[in-house]
Amino acid sequence: MNELEKTVMQVLDAYKSAVFAKDVDAFVSLYDQEVRVFDLWEKWSYNGIEAWRGMVMDWFNSLGTDRVDVEVDNVEISATDKLAMAHGFITYKGVSAEGKELRAMQNRLTWVLKQKDGTWKIIHEHTSAPVNAETSKVILQR
Prior knowledge:
about 140 residues; Nuclear Transport Factor 2, Chain: A; about 45% strand; about 25% helix; globular
């Protein structure tokens, strides 16, 4: 893994830590002010950091005392010195305050990151899951 790929993985590790800590500020700091997010839930897109912050606050507040443990696998990264793209599979595991796994779901994740002033920021995020053609239900487990 080259240095640029390691840098993208560091952003991913910071994402996982911020989600587990339910730290809105740490989470949002990973994103560019003009971020555009195509999320799996509710809206077609979140445009700009304030719209995304609102979704993140709602998500973290909905958890109560539960936390979310994030795992990623099959991550592939392509990067230049100014722009990077990463995609892979992401698992969100709801865990109780005592650490017991309560539920889990999987998504496909794509990020586009841009280096600005020496810092890598996510400028676009896209999460998705396939839909069963017969039932029209989203498939949240691989």
